[in-house]
TrEMBL record:
Tree of life domain: Bacteria
Family the UniProt entry places it in: Belongs to the outer membrane porin (Opr) (TC 1.B.25) family.
Keywords: Signal, Transport
GO MF annotation terms: porin activity
Residues in the signal sequence: 1-23
Name of this protein: OprD family porin
One term under GO cellular component: membrane
Coiled-coil annotated spans: none
Length: 427
């Protein structure tokens, strides 16, 4: 892994230094201040998880059980991104502030991952985390060191609650060749969405490398790999192809695969590997899109992630609650999307999907595990005026499993989220 990592770095730097004579992002830099931006992103989230079999939510401080978790909070993100200084090597900085405010949520209903927990078992009323990074650019290659948000299939910071995770490390992204993106990085800390700690997960190190290439406007592919110390080595591949059929009609295919080799320190010599892949086919017809997906997990363990980022599960059947990645699990999805712009209501959209999984191997049970989930989502984004880009979203999930998988994954529940987001571009 170390050899792969530094080979990618060398390739990116070489490409950057041999193409300076051509137009590049750095050669067109206007300056540190002139290209800077400052954004404020506001998100209000109400989240309720209703356990259908009674008191399944146990407060780790009080020991009391409740039949549901319910919390509401506001997240405010300030993000400043400078431009790069002019010259062969451009220098810049990024800085962010992440703040959360608890609007509602008692001690008995804590636990949805919105807030850190106080000593008496309640969600923390306010939290603030600040961070920054220094960045360098040569031609179309950027090297960044410090606190940052990462979106790699093998190391992806999660943003499914009020605030996102933030990683600390070095990350290089090179776009010297049209259509080709090379990336490599080493990360040494990762904060959770509910904590202002710099390293919530006690991450020792995560080395990542990746390459993505767009062969045509309709065909792209990528390969990525990671080495997370004391946990696993992970490999990922993706192929995405769109076949235009007629006016306002297209067929899209999306294939994703992970291969994970677990370290002895993590598995205690009890399991070695997992392979999980998914294939989705989506047919678009004007305002309508119909999707079918199949996903398969194999090996001697389920697919694991988290210490490498809560978003590191780029699979078609990873949905609102479940990821459908149990040991030996097979899962099937049917999905429908509707964009109301074609019917005179731009900004309004609907989505519903159903996923069924079975053949799950559960330790201690002869019976195979089974699960299914139904999702519904509607979203409206204001298109113009003073409140332009203000959005309202409702997400609802119903998840059920048989006794075997309830014992391994959790209790039956309904998950409801109301989300209001308002991005502001100050600079």
């Amino acid at each position: 892994m170390q050899v792969m990592k530094w080979s990618a770095l060398a390739l990116a730097v070489t490409a950057g230094t041999t193409q300076l004579a051509f137009a590049s992002a750095q050669s067109e830099s206007k300056g540190f201040v002139e290209d800077s931006s400052f954004d404020i992103f506001n998100r209000a989230l109400y989240m309720n998880r209703d356990f259908r079999n009674g008191g399944a939510n146990t407060n780790k401080v009080t020991g009391k059980e409740a039949g549901y978790r319910e919390e509401t909070g506001l997240g405010i993100r300030l993000l400043f991104e400078s431009g790069f200084t002019q010259g062969t090597v451009g220098v810049g900085v990024d800085a962010h502030s992440l703040s959360s405010i608890k609007l509602d949520g008692g001690r008995g209903h804590y636990g949805n991952g919105l807030f850190d927990q106080t000593s008496d078992g309640r969600g923390d009323d306010t939290q603030t985390e600040v961070g920054g990074a220094v960045k360098f650019r040569v031609s179309d290659t950027v090297l960044k060191y410090g606190n940052q948000f990462v979106a790699s299939p093998v190391f992806s910071t999660d943003d499914s609650r009020i605030l996102p995770e933030a990683a600390t490390g070095t990350y290089l992204v090179s776009n010297e060749i049209e259509g080709l993106e090379l990336s490599a990085g080493r990360f040494s800390a990762l904060s959770s969405q509910a904590s202002s700690d710099r390293d919530t997960f006690e991450l020792k190190s995560a080395d990542i490398v990746g390459a993505s290439y767009a062969f045509t406007d309709n065909l792209s592919a990528s390969v990525h790999a990671s080495d997370v110390e004391d946990y696993w080595k992970k490999y990922y591949g993706n192929v995405n192809y769109t076949l235009p059929l007629a006016e306002e009609q297209a067929l899209n295919f999306d294939f994703n695969i992970y291969k994970t080799d677990y370290e002895d320190e993590y598995s205690n010599d009890e399991f070695d590997d997992n392979t999980v892949w998914s294939l989705a086919a989506a047919y678009s017809l004007g305002a309508h899109k119909f999707t079918l997906a199949y996903q398969r997990s194999s090996g001697d363990h389920a697919y694991d992630y988290g210490v490498d980022g809560g978003g590191t599960v780029w699979l078609n059947n990873s949905v609102q609650y479940s990821d459908f990645v149990g040991e030996d699990e097979k899962s099937y999805q049917a999905r429908y999307d509707l964009d109301m712009a074609s019917y005179g209501v731009p900004g309004l959209s609907f989505m519903t999907r159903y996923i069924y999984g079975d053949d799950i191997t559960v330790e201690g049970f002869e019976e195979e595990g089974k699960e299914h989930e139904w999702n519904f989502e509607t979203k409206y984004v204001i298109q113009e005026g003073a409140a332009k880009d203000l959005s309202f979203r409702v997400r609802h999930a119903i998840w059920r499993a048989n006794d075997a998988y309830n014992s391994a994954y959790g209790d039956d529940l309904n998950d409801t989220r109301l989300i209001v987001e308002y991005p502001l571009d100050v600079l």
